[in-house]
Amino acid sequence: MLKRYFLLLCLISLPVFAQPISFTDVTSSYTLPAGVKLILGERTTNPKLKLWYFDVDMNRTNVAIKPYFNPAGKEGITSFVPRMGAIAGINGGYFDVNTGASYSALIEPGIVKAKNIATLTRPAGTYYTTRSLFSFTDTREFSVDWIYHFGNRPLDIYTFNAPLPNTETTPAPAPVTIQGTQYYEILAGIGGGPTLVKNGQRHVTYTEEVFFGSGVGSTNRDPRTVVGYTADRHVIMMVIDGRQVDSEGLSLPEVADLMISLGCVEAMNLDGGGSTQMSVGNQLVNLPVGSTFQRPIPTMLAIVNPDSINLLPPLFYIDKIDNVDSNIVKSGTWSVSNVGGYWGTTPSLNANAGNGETTLKWKMKINNEAKYDVYAWWVAASNRASNAPYIIKHKNGTDTVKINQSINGSQWNRIGSFTFSNDPSEGVTLSNKVDTAGKVVNADAIRILSFDSVLVSVEDPEPVVPTTIQLNQNYPNPFNPSTIISFSIPESADIQVTIFDIMGRELKTIYKGFKSAGTHQLEYDGSDFGSGVYFYRLAYGNQVLTRKMLLIK
């Protein structure tokens, strides 16, 4: 059964891997910071192929990514990158080659610089387009989503579980907000399309996003620009040369399979063709049309110093607690607000100014004593109290922070940093004790973050026992020559972790024996094997989990 499974994987990946792609780490040939690798992929037999990709480790504090929109017009990548003070970059989404107007979304912190094209005309009529967006939050949570702009603000962006079901012969009805979810937490993002990978599986939404009739082909091999991310927060930024003697390019399904082989859980296409270009500083990496000519572009996705964007440092803990969470304790009278911009799926709550008889407490759900940053989300309005009291009970006492809720709504606002233990009485309470008649306090959500790598209590807490078996993505991936494989098991048992090649042949057992319930790590050394795609399998009782990994030498 196992061999059949691996054979199936091979057949699925055949368009990309009919002839192997050889990967080479060329980072040392360029000036790049720690945490960024540049990988060259080549296939010298037909169909010939040449590609490059940045592997950006977003778990590091010294590097970040950022989309850029050029308000001055279009320019080549080797000029665009250094002028923005970026380290490196690839071209962004689609645009009008004559005017430079962007047809794809670009969101910088708090600002929509460009919107996805809303409608397209095809022989069958007018099509509404829910197109792809690669985005991330300030806490380095990545996503590829289908979005539609219902206005000009970040709050007017809505995501959808699936793109509109357009076909070449039948346009879908226009989207409405009730079908989607307000995309309130986005820090920055860049649009394009179509989506290639969702949930680690090939999912090419070419027709649904209305790329037919656009000049963007699906099954033909062409130059491509692609972005995706892995489960362990590595961002893959790729350019694929095409229409050249030594590089045909790839079809969209082939690109999807390639990104999956690199560990991407989600990925999407950006503008390709003659716009396909990558630069480190002012040094052109690829040859977009077989020469050094660069098509001027208005947008790009860049590798930058973290100081240039409002990213928080990598987290060791995050929790978000809504106003309907099980850890909520309410007293007094709260009414449901009819104003949008709330966090989560439930509206915010209002309480009239009073003497403190009305409260809402978000209780902590932590296991380890540490320092935590507390953020609050409220929905701003003109009738909100200017001194809404957030009362924080923590290990070292109680602090009250008064917030002006008439401004800075629909975003995470930092209240302060406090040490919390696992005392159930600790938490954050919003009270209606304000002295301005006619005003209301607004209770929506809080989040707590910790950057404390130790996360230890004075008394060692009991270890958290996982409730399900879990096999995590190896780290780093790609790797050379060693990598860490981690897994969790809910009950103590005999387990086995085994390495297989892409043909399903068993190569090595790296562990066989008893393991207690909990989370464990194993180091795998691939020195004895060549570059390529491999699989690691965890056998636990009658359950088997398998993941891919990529060895590059």
Short note summarizing the structure:
With 553 residues, this protein is mainly beta.
Task: Describe it.
The protein has 3 domains: 19-308, no CATH class; 317-450, Galactose-binding domain-like (Jelly Rolls, Sandwich); 470-551, Immunoglobulin-like. The two termini are 31 Å apart. The protein has an 8-stranded antiparallel beta sheet with strand order 1-2-3-18-17-19-15-16, with helices on one face. A 7-stranded antiparallel beta sheet has the order 7-6-14-10-11-12-13, with no helix packed on it. Strands 4-22-5-20-21 form a 5-stranded antiparallel beta sheet, with helices on one face. It has 4 helices and 41 strands. The protein is mainly β. 43% of the residues are buried.
Overall average residue pLDDT: 89
| Largest β-sheet summary | 8 strands, antiparallel
Total discrete domains = 3
Q: How many E-type strands?
A: 41
Shape: globular
Query: Which structural class do the helices and strands define?
Result: mainly beta
| Number of helices, counting only DSSP H or I runs of 4 residues or more | 4
Strand content: 35-45%
